[in-house]
Amino acid sequence: MKQFMSFVLLIILCAPLLLSATACAPSKGGGSTEHTAHLAEMSELPPTMQTASKTVSDAYRFAIANPEATQNVPCFCGCGPLGHANNYDCYVRAVSNDGKIIFDEHALGCVICIDITQDVMRMTDEGRAPPQIRQTIINTYTHYGPSNQP
Questions:
Q1: Where are the domains of the chain?
Q2: What is the pLDDT of residues 36-59, one digit of tens each?
Q3: pTM (2 decimals)?
């Protein structure tokens, strides 16, 4: 029993370290949920995004189909030094004058980026207003790291 309690205490003490160490670890795509929000066609994604888990590819598809939704919210994975100004930038590096999307591969390996987008998708499905979505994201993710928005 004493060993069991020591094990439980070790888990409790190490959990915050494990969470912060895996903040931008590759997403396993475990908690995927079907969404009613508009998603871009899979064919609009490059092969690397098409072959990612459903959770990741859906996040990319949502970001390019709903840029205003992901531009509305900050990211908290520490991607500000990469030049990212919002969650959308974790997916899209640029859009050319002819409308061609230049993708950013950052979100392929960042659980926080994907989780933020999944939450935005869920709240969009629920009919929440953009200011409420933004505030919920800030309240939920601010403890993971600095915001990439002032």
A1: 38-144
A2: 789 999 999 999 999 999 999 999
A3: 0.77
